Structures are given as C-alpha cells and as structure tokens.
Amino acid sequence: MLTNPGAAVPIGTHETLRWTRYLVALAVLSASVWAQTRGTPPDEDFQSLLHRGFQFHERSAYDKTVPLLQSAYKLRPKDYFVNLLLGIDMLRTGQARNAIAFLKTAAKARPGEEFPDEYLGEAEATLGHFAEAAAAYIAAQRVAPGSAQSSVTLADFSLDRFAKIAIELRGSRKGLAAEYRLQALASSPANASRVELLTRAADLDNDAPGIWSEIALAQFTANDVAAARQSVTLAIEKDANDLRAWEVQTLIAANDNDAKYVVGRLNEIAERSPAALIQTFHHWPRELHIPDPSTATGPAANFLACLERADCKPDGLSSQVAADPKLPVASPETLYREQRWERVVAHASRSAPDQRRLQHGVALARLDRCEDAIPALERSLQAASSTEAAFWLSLCYAREAANAAEKVQQASGDDTDLHIIRGDVLLRLQGNTQGAIQEYQAALARRGNDASLWARLAESQLGAGQLEFAKEGARTALKFEAKCLPAKRILAKIAMQERDYSAALPYLRELVAHDPRELATRVELGTASAQTASLEEALANLGPALQNGYPDEKGSLHYLLGTVLRRMGKSQEAERAFQAARELSERFQQGSHSEQDERP
To answer: Does the first or last residue of the chain, that is N or C, have fewer Cβ atoms within 10 Å of its Cβ?
Structure first.
C-alpha cells in the first residue's frame, strides 16, 4: 500500500500483496454485507443501495459505486460498511483527500478491525501526510497484532520511507554523514567497518550530536581501548551530558579495574535515564571485568549483580531506579540537554501536541518507543527539514520494518510474504545483496508476474555486481509494468556505470520529471548530459544541485560544472567552479593524509 505523494494511483512495493490484502478485505465485507441485507429491516432503501453499490464495488465499477454509496450515506452517515466502501472507492478513483473522512468514521465505528486504518494509511501517504500515514499503519497493527497482512503493510511503508529519506539525506554533506552513521549502526558491532563508517561520518559532520561517543563505543568494542579513550574525551568536550560517552567511560574504567569510578558513573547514568542504564548493560562485553556488587551502592549494585547472573533480565533495572523527589523542576530544553529522556517524554505529554516535536521524537526514539516517535519526528521533519530528525526517523523506520518482518515470520501462512519481507530487510537495512537475491528468487517462484519483485531482484543483483542479470530483471519488470520507475532507475544506473550515457538519458529524464527534488538523480542527469554535449541540460541540473548542498567531497562535480560552463563560453563562472573544485580536492586529500598518519 505504498504510494508516492501526489500520485493518482497507489504504487505498491508489493503490488500483488496489496491486492491480496484487498481481496481478503472484500471477502470479509461480502459476508457481512450479505448477512446485513438478507433480513427485512425497516429502511429497505438503504439496504438496496448498499447491496447494489457493493456489487459494483466487487467489479471495480467505481463510477457507478460511489453515487449509490453516497445516497446510502445520507440515510446512515455512521454506518461502518458505507463509510469503508466509500473511503476505498474514492481512494481508487484518485480522491484520497475525500476518502480520509469516511475511513476515519469507519475506524471509529469498528475500532477492533484493521481494514479502515490500513486504507487510511494509504490515503494519507498518497497525500504526503507521512505522520498521519505512519500512525494509521501502526494503529492497524496494534488492532491486529497477529495479522501477517498488517505487518506486511507496516514493513512495506517503513521500508519505502527509509529509502526515500535516504535519498534526501544524500543531498547534503550533513545528510551524507547521517547515512554513514546509519550504515554503521546496521552492521554488526564487531564488524571492523563500523569504526570506518562512523569516522567517515565525523569527517563530514564533526559536530553531529553523539557521533564521537558512537565512535568511542565502536572502538572499545573492537578492543582499541587507546583510541576509545581519545574519542570519548573529544565526545565529552563537545557535550558533557552525552550519556553514551558516560557509558564508554564506565566500560573503560571497568577495563582499568577502577570499581569506584564504575559505580559512580553507573549511578549517574541511572539518575539521568534508566533506559540508558539498560543500554549500558547490553553493551557490556562478556569478558569485561565486573566489580564486586557487594561494594556498590544505589542502582549500580543491582546493575552489577544482574551482570553476574546469566538469567537476569536487564529490563527490570529501570523499575528499580526510584525517581528522586528532590530533583528541581526543569525546563524542557534543560531536560533534553541533560538527556533525561523519560522526563522529556513525560513533560511533552503534558504540553501542547505541536510543541517541541523534534525533542519529543528523539527522546521517544532514544527510549526505543519508535511507534510513538515516528509520527512526532515526521511532523518535525515536515515543519522544518532537520538532519537529526531524518536520522532518528530512519533509525526508527528500520526498527519497525525489522519488527514487522519478525511478526510476519510468526504469523504468515504464506511463505511468499515472508520471502519478500526478508528480501527487503536484507537489501534495505543490512546491505546483504546475496541474501536478498535468494529471498526474491524464492518469492518470484510463486509470483513470477510481479513487476515490483523483478525490480527488487534487479536492484539486489546490481548491488552484487551482476550487471547482466540486473539488466534482464529490470527489463522483465518493464514487460509486466511499463511504468515501473524502480526498474528504470536500475537501467539508468547500469548505463551510467557502463558509460553508455545516451542510453541512460531517457530514463534519467523521466525520473527527474517524476520527482525534481531528488538531487542525486539530477546530478546523474547533469553528468550524462555533459558527456553527450547537452550543455544547457547539464547546467540546469548540475548547477542547482550543487547550489543546494549536494555533497562533492573530491570536487569532481564542480570540475565537471566548470568544464560545461567553459564550453558554453562562460569563462568567469567556469573559473569559480574550477576554484571550488581545487579547494574541495585539497581538503579531501588533506583528510586522507591525516587518516593515513593516524594508522599504526
């Protein structure tokens, strides 16, 4: 049920699954409507209108369905079936804005059914109301926690938003840094690439909140205690309230057998945020020294005792941390700055819902309450573009997709659904292209005419370097759905890799026309245009993208822009572009030399 904002017809990542869910809903409705119309109620006109409308609805004759249902609505404006069918049929005829009120009424009439919320999520997403869409999809899963359908829908939406936010992040230097952080967090803590990715992020955005404490934790996990000491010192210099930095200081102190410091820091962490104390427990290496719990006081004593017990559940530690009644009343800004996440959330719940959305959303995400965090972060992102909001939103969507995939595995009776979700998680969240290929191939064995599945397979094959297979998969997708944009994006990428710029141009032009805001695609179009002497088109795409902050670490794009300007006879503008290219290149080389000097 995923959609692109403004599209008249929903574009599903799993189109076949969307129709499967739709038919299941129809089956439920059909039985209910027939049961409702077999009696002889006093308002026979209403029953006749509903029955006739539903018959047309089953045949997708929406132009005939809507007038009948609107007449029935006038007779019973709160009827569940009338509102649900009107909402669905208006959604199917491109009237998503009008569908919302009917779907909300249906959801209110029967709060125990997930169908109204699923279609409401689709309608809101069609309009680009992602906060409302997320809330509706999450509500559907809460209503039917054992439903594989609602889990697939939520995972589908979460992965779609994750992918779109990633595209937006890559359009700026700070955003690209956030992307590196997300890649690092998706990898195993023991993976050597985690430190490298986080360091790359710090190079791009040295002041990103929490980046140096994340680096320090990754270094400590990799047994590079000396490097962790340096990074955690820098983290504290940048933010003395960084609880992740406090956690790393605790781990280093345990490594040094400094029990007094360990106990003191643990109690300080617990006083700020019990959830942060539990995170420290999960990050404590098995082989790390555990100070004697009998010598500890406060929450630290329970923490250390729990570490010693193999059967201890750390979640109970938060309930053992008593709130200090002597704590002074603090402003929301102070609570946020001091990373008192639980109190930030409690304070926000007593405030107007539109205040401090970013702080509220980040605090909820820090507490691993992503179902509540996502709508708050989406509203924050809509009100004012923020790299921090996009980072935490991406992290939460990744978590929700993974959780939904797990629920599908537990509830689904159809292995195909499970293969699709597994493939999406492996591809989008873990970068495991080989694993994704296997999952999509297993799904295609049963749904071989699904264009979106062929496009996903092709994307995985492209990521695995299997260019010829990826071409074949993308072309197969276009045979089943001529307007399949993901397939066209893949063919454009392959053509660019093979430097067949003329072949890439038609696809890139269509992609840019579909969404001119995607700076990465505009840069590719500008590059292909420059290589094929379409200078005006190259300038029209490269210039605005770079002006809007598209990252150009090595300066190569500015150099290409300078070349285009010079060939167009714009010498002064060309020289400015060349000068920017030289400065970026020198800065990049200096950073590379610094990294080499730091390596042992």
So the answer is: C
Instruction: Supply the DSSP string of 32-81, one letter for each residue.
Output: HHHHHHSS--S-HHHHHHHHHHHHHHHTT-HHHHHHHHHHHHHH-TT-HH
Asked whether 173 and 591 are in contact (CB, 8 A), the reply is no
> Rounded to an integer, what distance in angstroms lies between the CA atom of residue 497 and that of residue 566?
26
* Mean pLDDT computed over 24-31: 50
Average pLDDT over residues 504-530: 92
Would the pLDDT of 18 be above 60? no
Q: What is the pLDDT of residues 172-213, one digit of tens each?
A: 889 999 999 998 988 777 778 899 999 999 999 999 999 999
Question: Quick check: helix, strand or coil at residue 273?
Answer: coil
pLDDT of residue 15: 38
Give the list of residues 6+ apart from residue 135 with CB closer than 8 angstroms, or none: 374, 375
Query: How much of the chain is helix, strand and coil, in % rounded to 5?
Result: 75, 0, 25
Average pLDDT (300-318) is 88
Q: By the 8 A CB rule, do 186 and 214 touch?
A: no
The per-residue pLDDT for range 429-482, each reduced to its tens digit, is 777 899 999 999 999 999 999 998 999 999 999 999 999 999 999 999 999 998
283: left (phi over 0), alpha (psi -120 to 50) or beta: alpha
> Which is nearest to 442 in space by CA: 405, 480, 415, 465?
415
CB of 487 closer than 8 Å to CB of 48: no
pTM of the model: 0.76
Per-residue CA distances from 171 to 133, 316, 438, 445 (Å): 25, 42, 31, 37
Predicted local distance difference test score (pLDDT) of residue 595:
45
Task: Output the six-digit token pair for 146.
Answer: 């054992």
Give which of 3, 13, 56, 2 is closest to 33, Cα–Cα. 56
Return the SS3 of 487: helix
Q: Which long-range contacts (CB under 8 A, 24 or more apart) does 392-396 make?
A: 392/361, 392/362, 392/365, 393/161, 393/165, 393/361, 394/162, 394/165, 394/166, 394/169, 394/178, 394/182, 395/182, 395/185, 395/365, 395/370, 396/365, 396/370
| Backbone CA torsion sign across 506, 512, 515, 521 | positive
Nearest to 210 by CA among 246, 169, 250, 171: 246
Amino acid at 499: R
Nearest to 506 by CA among 465, 537, 536: 537
CA distances from 403 to 147, 148, 362 (A): 13, 12, 19
Measured in Å, how far apart are the chain's first and last C-alpha atoms?
A: 51
**Contact criterion met (CB below 8 Å) for 559 and 576:** no
| pLDDT tens for each residue of 383-395 | 777 899 999 999 9
pLDDT for 196: 93
Amino acid at 510: E
The whole-angstrom separation of Cα 359 and Cα 379 is 12
Instruction: Give CA–CA dist 508/157, Å, rounded.
Output: 25
48: which residues sit within 8 A by CB, 6+ positions away? none
Burial class (CB in 10 A: 0-12, 13-18, 19+), 41: exposed
